[in-house]
Amino acid sequence: MPRICFTLQVDPARLDEYRARHERVWPEMLTALAECGWRDYSLFLREDGLLVGYLVTDDFTAAQAAMQTRDVNSRWQAEMAPFFLNLDHGTADRAMRPLAEVFNLEAQLAAQTGEQA
Prior knowledge:
Radius of gyration: 16 Å
Strand content: 15-25%
Strand order of the largest sheet: 2-3-1-4
GO biological process, one term: rhamnose catabolic process
CATH class: Alpha Beta
Order of helices and strands: EHHEEHHEHH
CATH architecture: 2-Layer Sandwich
Pfam families: rhaM (PF05336)
Organism: Micromonospora cremea
Largest sheet: 4 strands, antiparallel
Protein name: L-rhamnose mutarotase
Shape: globular
Number of helices: 6
GO molecular function: racemase and epimerase activity, acting on carbohydrates and derivatives
CATH topology: Alpha-Beta Plaits
């Protein structure tokens, strides 16, 4: 199952508010993410505003497209857009570009023993 990692840049002046918004994400948004195939989804925030996201999904393109059909996603993205810097595509969910995975411990260990990760 593909692991996806991406980065975005949060405005360093708004880190506390960004953290506060994520302490209690709207229940409807949580449900939509789960229903659209976003699993083991986490966000990590550095003090300079670097945001690293991680999730597992069967098909990232399909999971993103499914979220685009949800009204709650449109509302959430509109509220969160002012927190981000350098959004080339208007909203954070459209600016996510997966990073290339260059190492995975479980995959290499499995390859040593002939198992599939």
